[in-house]
Amino acid sequence: MRSRVVPSGPRLTTSASAGGTSRAGSIRLVVVGRAPATLASYRWLTRKYVAPAIGGIRLQALQPGHLDALCAEMIGADLAPRTVRYVHSVIRKALGDAVGKGLILRKVATLADPPTAKAARAPEMRFWTPAELATFLAAVAATNGSPFTASPE
């Protein structure tokens, strides 16, 4: 969902600064104590996904449907539910700061429907059983390509 640019008012166009905050129009997302890599991640996610989709919408005009459309667009682009949920959490934090500063009356991100936590959970790791590992090592050794034995000269 692409949005039209509205001429005035604060917008959700965040860019985290090394000084420990993200700026979203007049919103300052408090990220004090975050690692530089976290700030870089917030910056990148916002530039890549948030600003192009909803950056032109005034905060007071932002609706849950805009955020639902952003999530749907990201899922349609084959992004992992975990990434979509992470983007949503960054937006939710910025909007929470905007509510705290009186820029908006409600945090619309809490009314949107991002992927569930269960869908965003990383898949459970599955390890080989000893029998599966033995089968694999035997197959590799049978090809004389085993990295664990010296190759014949």
Summarize the structure.
The protein is mainly α and 153 residues long.
Please write out the topology.
Layout: E1 14-16, E2 21-24, E3 27-30, H1 36-54, H2 64-76, H3 81-100, H4 117-120, H5 130-142
Antiparallel strand pairs: 1-2, 2-3
Give the CATH level 1 class: Mainly Alpha
**What is the CATH H-level superfamily?**
Tyrosine recombinase, N-terminal domain
Number of domains: 1
- End-to-end separation in angstroms reads 63 Å
* Strand content bin: 5-15%
Radius of gyration: 23 Å
Alpha-beta content class: mainly alpha
In the CATH hierarchy, the architecture is Orthogonal Bundle
The succession of helices and strands, N to C, reads: EEEHHHHH
- How many helical stretches? 5
Name the poorly predicted regions: 1-11, 14-28
Average pLDDT score: 74
Enter the CATH topology name. Answer: DNA polymerase, domain 1
Number of strands: 3
Task: Give the overall form.
Answer: elongated
Strand order of the largest sheet: 1-2-3
Helical content, roughly?
A: 40-55%
Characterize the main sheet: 3 strands, antiparallel
Write up this protein.
The protein is mainly alpha-helical and 153 residues long. The chain has one domain (14-121): DNA polymerase, domain 1 (Orthogonal Bundle). Helices cover 45% and strands 7% of the residues. It contains 5 helices and 3 strands. The chain has a 3-stranded antiparallel β-sheet with strand order 1-2-3. A hairpin with a 2-residue loop joins strand 2 and strand 3. Helix 1 crosses helix 2 (64-76) and helix 2 (64-76) packs antiparallel against helix 3 (81-100). The radius of gyration is 23 Å and the shape is elongated.
